[in-house]
Design a protein that fits this description.
The complex is a heterotetramer, with two copies of chain A (165 residues) and two copies of chain B (83 residues). Helices cover 30% and strands 37% of the residues of chain A. With 165 residues, chain A is of the alpha+beta class. In chain A, strands 1-6-8-2 form a four-stranded mixed β-sheet, sandwiched between helices. Chain A has a four-stranded antiparallel β-sheet with strand order 7-5-9-10, with no helix packed on it. Chain B is α+β, with helices and mostly antiparallel strands and 83 residues long. In chain B, 27% of the residues lie in helices and 23% in strands. The termini of chain B are far apart. Classes of the chains: A alpha+beta (165), B alpha+beta (83). Strand 2 of chain A pairs antiparallel with strand 2 of chain C, so a sheet runs across the interface.
């Protein structure tokens, strides 16, 4: 299993990450990617930028734990998770999840699992900047109950799952 | 013990981190929140709705009932909005 | 909705296709890709190559119909489907599905829907070349009942994923 | 009418396409398969298990009961294995 986890300010290259994970390998039959992009609106209001704050150390460890859990659930051959932090303009890429497996079911399921997790459980917080004329205002994005529900659909008991989750 | 605050918890308290020494009868995360609330207006504002506050001990998510004895670093933050 | 459907012999570039679909847009918040890769084995036997045959005209029309169905089911902002034909060596990319939406649920569901469809209903046939020493033998890949079952889970009047949320 | 064959149906019959004029009492896809089977060994081999054979009329999937009157192009092929 090839695992790559990166938290970074810089942009990333989706095609390059897929290649890093799969190039020269003939055991991988399926690669799924999810790319999250900064939209130009939040709750129907135009935004100027998004600033992402995270908990250094905890974010990496938490993502690593969930990548391990994905490995335990599905026969994966590779996983890459890249999450950016700092200020991002609309259209910029925020997050990338790449999953590789011999067949598509595992790759799809693991990518969805990791995204549901990142959305609601990984220690990241988004602040939105809106610009109405000359006034710039900032507000923290509220967590969505649909994201919690999405994360909870994976909560079916597995032997190694901690009770705290 | 070291406390860390993130997002609007950090903004309301006005600090990203600090060292505190709560009395011995402050045994759980929930009790620590109550104790912190008395430290000033910013704390009271940050913790005005304790139910939405999330906590981590040594970078692991914990619940309000979690005991803080032996904790190196405790963090408080709002519900997460990554991805 | 930006729709691109291509049947081609040539390789494709996943990163380039994502960019074509999403560059300069601020309404897209989520892009999912599925890439199918020629594995080096089929039923645990090493293979030398895969040859893909398809029904010209019907394949394009059938894919277009299913892209339209995906659009009717989920709020999509863009779909790209590229399927190669001809002889492919292990490690080469066979198929690409890219789906874009404002949120991840639609992008994931539509990509899975289109892949389930392509696997079991699109008029393509795979022939496997195995090389045991100097003898090259060719055999047609048998359809999997699991692929039929995967395609059939979308036959319910409502996509089950949306109903579950 | 034009017939097209794909994958091992094509290989067994030995043709990728041909023009045929079945008699008027051959009204459905199923009846066309029976009629084709009598045309020779390759056809009999290709259609030996008619249940697995898929058909399309004018590039639309159809079932064995589908009527062939007015069809421009009819295709026969094995279960599909794309993706």
């Amino acid at each position: 299993m090839t695992t790559t986890i990166k938290l970074q300010r810089e942009a990333f290259d989706v095609g390059g990450e897929i290649e890093l994970l799969s190039k020269g390998r003939t055991d991988i039959g399926a690669v799924v990617t999810f790319t999250g992009i900064c939209r130009g609106d939040e709750n129907a209001r135009p935004i100027a930028a998004l600033t992402l704050e995270y908990y250094p150390g905890m974010a990496e460890a938490e993502i690593a734990r969930h990548v391990e859990e994905a490995q335990a659930r599905w026969p994966l051959l590779g996983v890459t998770v890249i999450h950016r932090y700092g200020r991002l303009a609309p259209g910029e890429l925020i997050v990338l999840v790449v999953t590789a497996s011999s067949h598509r079911e595992a790759a799809f399921a693991a990518a969805e699992f990791l995204m549901d997790y990142l959305k609601s459980r990984a220690p990241f917080w988004k602040q939105v900047e809106t610009a109405d004329g000359k006034t710039v205002s900032k507000s923290w994005v509220e967590a969505k109950s649909t994201d919690d529900a999405a994360a909870e659909r994976w909560a079916a008991p597995l032997p190694h799952r901690e009770a705290a989750k | 013990m070291k406390l860390r605050y993130f997002a609007w918890v950090r903004e309301r308290i006005g600090l990203a981190e600090e060292d505190v020494s709560p009395p011995n009868d402050v045994a759980t995360i929930g009790e620590l929140v109550v104790w912190l609330t008395k430290r000033g207006e910013g704390y009271a504002y940050a913790f005005e709705n304790p139910k939405v506050i999330r906590a981590a001990i040594d970078k692991n998510h914990v619940r309000a009932e979690a005991r803080i004895a032996g904790a190196g670093e405790i963090a408080f933050f709002p519900p997460m909005t990554g991805g």
